[in-house]
Amino acid sequence: MATITDNINTTILEKVQSERIKKDSGVTPLPVPDQDSSEVVLSPLTGPIAYFTIKGNVTGTLTEAQTFINKLNYWVTIGGKLSTENVSFIGDVNPGPFSVRVIAADWEVSTDGPYVVKYNIQMIQGKFAGA
Predict the structure, then answer these.
(1) Report field, pTM of the whole predicted structure over 0.85
(2) Which domains does the chain have, with CATH numbers?
(3) Residues 63 and 36 sit within 8 Å (Cβ to Cβ)
């Protein structure tokens, strides 16, 4: 099971429907004016970067749904702070652990019967410079 561990506790994400990792080489294309695309200069201005996206759902009571939504808000809040407060992500397919920042989260709550929180969590691997 996928997990996210912050400085308070570990959350087990039981119903992860998909796990996506996008790794970018960091190569920057520098097009040359009035030239064909075969003349584009590729420059390694930055290094590689990894993005993680997980999608799933949490089913439970109103209190359990609210608790999970509060965790999503907390992870996004610490993701934007200039600090050493990364979270640890361990996936099902890509076991890690990866030291990441949650950069975005969105969710939708279904209230028919049990509460179902459908979520997307976007993370980036790394840490703040100087933190």
Answers:
(1) no
(2) 2-125 (2.40.30)
(3) no
